[in-house]
Design a protein that fits this description.
Chain lengths: 500, 135
C-alpha cells in the first residue's frame, strides 16, 4: 500500500463526511459513583435512551426524575468527572446484529472480544422489544433434541419453549446446556450462549470445548464477565435475545442459554439499590419479576404467516443448598414452562446428569416429543416413579414378593440407562432402541454393572442390523409392526451373543 | 406524601408574588424566607433562586442564551442570532451572554437551557474523528 493510496482513501472518506448543525440536548454530571451517574438537564430524554459522555463512554437513562436523570454507565466510569457535559443521542440502546456474528464471542454491547477482527454491519436491534403477541405465535410441537437421554425421554423440550435448569453449584447445570448446544450440530439450529458474571477462565474453557466439538459454526457467545460492571451484566441477556431475534426474523430456530439468571438478578439489584429504588424481598427491587418475565417472554415459536422461526430459552438458576423457595428461583420457575431440577445428592451418588426425575417437569414439551419416543418413555416414567416408592420401603425388609423384586430390578436398570457422561450426546434413534429394550424387559437379566456395555453394544449392533427400523424412526418418527419385529429379532440376537 | 421539591417551592413563591408590589411584596418575601428556613432548605437557596429565575423567564417569555466563540462576534451577526433565537423559541425578549474561548478554534456555540447548537470547528473535528474511527 503506497502512501498516496492512503491519502487518497482518507480524502475520499473525509469528503463523504457530512455534518449538519443541529440542536442537541445536553446535561451535566451532578455526581458519579459505582457505575451510576446523576445528571442534571437532559429535559426531553426518553427511558432507556443512550447518552454519551465526553470520553466516549455511553450510558443508559434508567431513572427519569423531576430535576435529574439516573444513568448507568456502560464501561469505564472512572474517567467521568463532576460537571462533564453529557449529550443525549436520541437513540434507544441497541446492539449491532449480523450473520457474521456466528462463531464469535461478543461483549454485552454486541462488539467482538475474541480478537478476530471487527464485524461490519449496519443493522442493529433495540435491546428492549415487546415480546411477540398471541396472534403471531404457534403452539410448541417440534422437539429440541438435547442428546441427553434423561431429558429427551422424560422432560422433553420443544422449540419455542422456556425450560429452566435449576440446581446448586457444581451439579452440572452448564454441562447440560453445553451438551444441548453440542447436539444441535446438523439440526438447523443457531445457538446463543449468554454468560452473565462468569469467570473468564470458565468461558474460555467452554469456548474451546465448543470449538473442539465443531459447535462454534452455529454458536454465538455473549459475555459479560465478572470483572465488568453490573450495568453490562444487566443488559447482556437482552443483547443475547436481540441477536437471537435477528435470526428468528429470518425464519430460523434459535436456542438461547442464559447462564445464569441468579447473577443477572444480583446485578440488577446492585443497579437498583445504587439508583435508590426501594428494595423489597431479599433487597431485590419491586420489578425483578418483570425483569425476567419480559426477557423470557421473548422466547416463542412464530407461525408461518409471521415468518416462522423460534427461540427456545434455557435459563439457568443457581440455588443455595437446594432452596427452590428463594425469591428468584420461585419467580423464574413460575415464568418458565417447566424445570430440570439437578441435585447434589444424586450427583455424588454417581447419577450424572443429576436430574431429579420426580421434581423435573416439562409443561409443554410432551406435545413436541416424537411418537416413537413417547411410546417408550411413557412406561419408563411409571417404572421410575414406582421404583422410587419401593426403594424407600425395601431398605427396611428383605422378604419381598417376586413382583416387587422385579420392579426394583427394573428401576435400578432404568437409573443405570439414564446415566450419561458429559459431552457424549446420544442420537434420538439410539435412545429409542435403548429405551425400548429397557421398558420391554430385555435388560432385566443383564447384570447392573454390565448395562452400559450392553447399551453401547446394542445400539451399535442395531444400527447395523435393524436398518429398516432406524429408517422408519428417522423418517416417520414412529415404527411399524414390521419394524418392531425386526428390532425384537435384533435385540434377541444381540443378547445371545452378549451372554457369551 | 412526596417530599417538596425545589421546583415546588420556587413556583409557590412565584405564584404568590405575581402582580404584588411594595409592602405586600416585602411581606411575601419575608414569609417565603421564613418558610425556607423552617423547612431547613436554606442550603438550597441558590438552587431555589435559579429555579425561580427559570420560572419567571418562561412566564415572561425571556430566553437566556450563552454564546461562545473564539473571537468577538460582530454586531450584525449578534442581531441575526437574536432574531434566530426569538423565532425558534417564540421568545419576546432575549438575554445574551458572551464568552470568548480560544479552544473552540472557530465558529460559534449557542447554549440555551439544556440545549446546545454547536457549530464550532472543535466539535466538527471531533465528529469527523468519530466518523473516521467507525468507518
Amino acid at each position: 500500500m503506497t502512501k498516496n493510496y492512503i491519502v487518497e482513501n482518507l480524502k475520499k472518506q473525509i469528503e463523504s463526511f457530512k455534518d449538519d448543525a443541529k440542536a442537541e440536548k445536553v446535561g451535566h454530571v451532578i455526581e458519579v459513583f459505582d457505575g451510576i451517574a446523576k445528571i442534571s438537564g437532559l429535559s426531553d430524554i426518553k427511558a432507556s435512551e443512550m447518552v454519551s459522555f465526553p470520553n466516549g463512554e455511553t450510558g443508559v437513562a434508567l431513572n427519569l426524575e423531576e430535576d435529574s436523570v439516573g444513568v448507568i454507565i456502560l464501561g469505564d466510569f472512572t474517567k467521568i468527572r463532576e460537571g462533564d457535559e453529557v449529550k443525549a443521542t436520541g437513540q434507544i440502546l441497541s446492539v449491532p446484529v449480523s450473520d457474521a456474528q456466528i462463531g464469535r464471542v461478543l461483549n454485552a454491547l454486541g462488539n467482538p472480544i475474541d480478537g478476530k477482527g471487527a464485524i461490519k454491519t449496519d443493522k442493529s436491534n433495540p435491546i428492549e422489544k415487546v415480546a411477540p403477541g398471541v396472534i403471531t405465535r404457534l403452539s410448541v410441537n417440534q422437539a429440541v433434541q438435547t442428546g441427553i437421554k434423561a431429558i429427551d425421554a422424560l422432560i422433553p423440550i420443544g422449540r419455542g419453549q422456556r425450560e429452566l435448569i435449576i440446581g446448586d453449584r457444581q451439579t452440572g447445570k452448564t454441562a447440560i446446556a453445553i451438551d444441548a448446544i453440542l447436539n444441535q450440530k446438523g439440526q438447523d439450529m443457531i445457538c446463543v450462549y449468554v454468560s452473565i458474571g462468569q469467570k473468564d477462565s470458565k468461558l474460555r474453557k467452554l469456548q474451546t470445548r465448543l470449538e473442539e466439538g465443531g459447535a462454534m459454526d452455529y454458536t454465538i457467545i455473549v459475555s459479560a464477565g465478572s470483572s465488568e460492571s453490573a450495568a453490562l451484566s444487566y443488559i447482556a441477556p437482552y443483547t443475547g435475545v436481540s441477536i437471537a431475534e435477528f435470526f428468528m426474523d429470518q425464519g430460523k430456530d434459535v436456542l438461547i442459554i442464559y447462564d445464569d439468571l441468579s447473577k443477572h438478578a444480583v446485578a440488577y439489584r446492585e443497579i437498583s439499590l445504587l439508583l435508590r429504588r426501594p428494595p423489597g424481598r431479599e433487597a431485590f427491587p419491586g420489578d425483578v419479576f418483570y425483569l425476567h418475565s419480559r426477557l423470557l417472554e421473548r422466547a416463542c415459536r412464530r407461525n408461518k404467516e409471521y415468518g416462522g422461526g423460534s427461540i427456545t430459552a434455557l435459563p439457568i438458576i443457581e440455588t443455595q443448598s437446594g432452596d427452590v423457595s428463594a425469591y428468584i428461583p420461585t419467580n423464574v420457575i413460575s415464568i418458565t414452562d417447566g424445570q430440570i431440577f439437578l441435585e447434589t445428592d444424586l450427583f455424588y451418588k454417581g447419577i450424572r446428569p443429576a436430574v431429579n426425575v420426580g421434581l423435573s417437569v416439562s409443561r409443554v414439551g410432551s406435545s413436541a416429543q416424537i411418537k416413537a419416543m413417547k411410546k417408550v418413555s411413557g412406561t419408563l416414567k411409571l417404572d421410575l416413579a414406582q421404583f422410587r416408592e419401593l426403594e424407600a420401603f425395601s431398605q427396611f425388609g428383605s422378604d419381598l414378593d417376586e413382583g416387587t423384586k422385579n420392579q426394583l430390578e427394573r428401576g435400578k436398570r432404568a437409573v443405570e440407562v439414564l446415566k450419561q457422561p458429559q459431552y457424549a450426546p446420544v442420537k434420538t434413534e439410539d435412545q429409542v432402541v435403548t429405551l425400548y429394550a429397557l421398558t420391554k424387559g430385555y435388560m432385566d437379566d443383564i447384570a447392573i454393572d454390565k448395562i452400559k456395555e450392553f447399551e453401547e453394544g446394542l445400539t451399535e449392533y442395531a444400527r447395523r442390523n435393524a436398518k429398516s427400523f432406524y429408517k422408519e424412526v428417522i423418517e416417520t418418527k414412529m415404527w411399524t409392526d414390521e419394524g418392531e419385529q425386526e428390532l425384537v429379532k435384533v435385540i434377541t440376537e444381540f443378547k445371545q451373543s452378549f451372554a457369551k | 406524601m412526596a417530599s417538596i421539591s425545589i421546583n415546588n417551592i420556587a413556583s409557590a413563591i412565584y405564584e404568590s408574588s405575581r402582580g404584588k408590589e411594595g409592602v405586600e411584596l416585602d411581606v411575601i418575601m419575608k414569609n417565603a424566607v421564613d418558610m425556607i428556613s423552617k423547612k431547613h432548605l436554606i442550603s438550597k437557596s441558590k438552587e431555589i433562586i435559579n429555579q425561580l429565575q427559570k420560572i419567571v423567564d418562561s412566564n415572561e417569555g425571556v430566553i437566556r442564551a450563552k454564546i461562545s466563540s473564539k473571537t468577538k462576534i460582530e454586531q450584525k451577526i449578534i442581531i441575526e442570532i437574536e432574531d434566530f433565537i426569538k423565532k425558534r423559541y417564540k421568545a419576546k425578549n432575549t438575554f445574551l451572554e458572551f464568552e470568548i474561548d480560544e479552544k473552540l478554534l472557530g465558529g460559534i456555540k449557542i447554549q440555551i437551557g439544556d440545549e446546545i447548537i454547536d457549530t464550532t470547528l472543535k466539535n466538527k473535528i471531533k465528529k469527523l474523528q468519530n466518523y473516521l474511527i467507525n468507518k
